[in-house]
Design goal:
The protein contains one helix and four strands; from the N terminus they run ββαββ. By secondary structure, the protein is mainly beta. The strands form two sheets. A two-stranded antiparallel ribbon has the order 1-2. A two-stranded antiparallel ribbon has the order 3-4. The termini are close together.
């Protein structure tokens, strides 16, 4: 995950309450049914992500 000011070619743009999220094509399948939240103590927190979605090398 990185901070970007604009989408790259092929990205999907989501607008969630004024926050724009740019998803790469390969991230769409990995983030299906996943919630992204921001917590002051931890930063961005992803919940609901399926372990098999990113394989055994997942560092999420």
């Amino acid at each position: 995950m990185d901070i970007a000011k604009a989408p790259q070619t092929g990205d999907t743009t989501l607008d969630m309450q004024g926050l724009k999220i740019f998803l790469e094509e390969r991230a769409k399948g990995m983030l299906t049914n996943t919630s992204i939240d921001f917590q002051e103590s931890q930063g961005f927190v992803l919940t609901g992500m399926q372990p098999s979605a990113c394989g055994s090398s997942c560092s999420c």
